[in-house]
Amino acid sequence: MAWNAARIPDQGGRVAVVTGANSGLGYVVARELARKGAHVVLACRSEVRGRAAERRIASEVGGADVEFVRLDLGDLGSVREFAAAYRHERLDLLVNNAGVMALPYGTTVDGFETQFGVNHLGHFALTGLLLPALLATPDARVVTVSSMMHALATIDPRDLNSERGRYRRWVAYARSKSANLLFTHELARRLEAAFAEVTAVAAHPGYAATNLQTTGPRAAGRRVSEWVAELGNRVVAQSAEGGALPVLYAATAPDVRPDSFTGPSFAAWRGNGTPAPSPRAPWTLDDRAGELLWEASERMTQVAYGPLKRVG
Q: Which InterPro entries has this protein been placed in (predicted)?
């Protein structure tokens, strides 16, 4: 029997934070968690779109318990404000979903290359700042959304901001997605060493139709590329609902193992059954690379994971 959103265990009494919950995968994940009884914090950059998502979920799910709180992952000040305002004593589920893809070169508010800054550093800081609530909650889980595109490039610890040589938007994106997986690997190692009741896992949607594919070409004024992306979304991609299933499985299934990487069951591309383990590049399981990325991330964000010390 195929796994679908109806098989999500009861989430009553649980608190979840979903970044980028106003559209695409994040919206579906937030809606389905709310449908199962979770209190869901919609962590979104745009207040207009975040409030609209809050109203939409309330209209689609009777009795939904959701709240919008502004979060801009491209601004570490905003990340700190979000964490400082977090009002719940527990945090059962943190879904690091928001991201940008294949953008022209740019920098975050804090001066980091945009894709690395938003996709990795913003979520690294957020997870670290919410760590006390996660550690205080039995069986808490952190799900970080990566991509099969991570296999295009490993991170370069000497050039985390993609400043050396010619900037290549897809390479920068792949590096940020490799960083997501390497972060999950190192976080899982440190949680295990600390005997913490928190599980760190990763997931990816395969090829799902969201606005992620068109934002980059539109930002660069590449109309043909935008048209190709729109065509791919219509003809080839699965729906956002299908792409969200591996994330929901990683977030809620009882048999998910630490540091696992869950994706669609058909060639890690589309889902036609229960989400399944996905292949990952060997560099995303490298302990030393994980340590180096962790140390650099703490230095760049000025967020230290106090209880989670270096392994070994």
A: NAD(P)-bd_dom_sf, SDR_fam
Which residue's structure tokens are 């990763």? 202
The first and second tokens of residue 196, run together, are 């913490």
Q: How far apart are CA 244 and CA 249, in angstroms?
A: 9
Choices 3.40.50.720, 3.40.50.300, 3.40.50.1820, 1.10.760.10: CATH for 13-301 = 3.40.50.720
Q: What is the distance between the terminal CA atoms of the chain, rounded to a whole angstrom?
A: 42
Q: Could you report the per-residue pLDDT of 39-65, keeping only the tens digit for each?
A: 999 999 999 999 999 999 999 999 999
| Helices H / strands E in the chain, number of each | 11, 8
Q: What is the pLDDT of residues 208-242, one digit of tens each?
A: 545 554 454 445 555 534 334 443 344 345 677 88
Residue spans per domain, the chain = 13-301
d(CA 176, CA 164): 16
Residue 167: active-site member: no
- List the catalytic residue out of 173, 207, 249, 305: 173
State the DSSP string of 119-178. Answer: IIIIHHHHHHHTHHHHHTSTTEEEEEE--GGGGG----TT-TT--SSS--HHHHHHHHHH
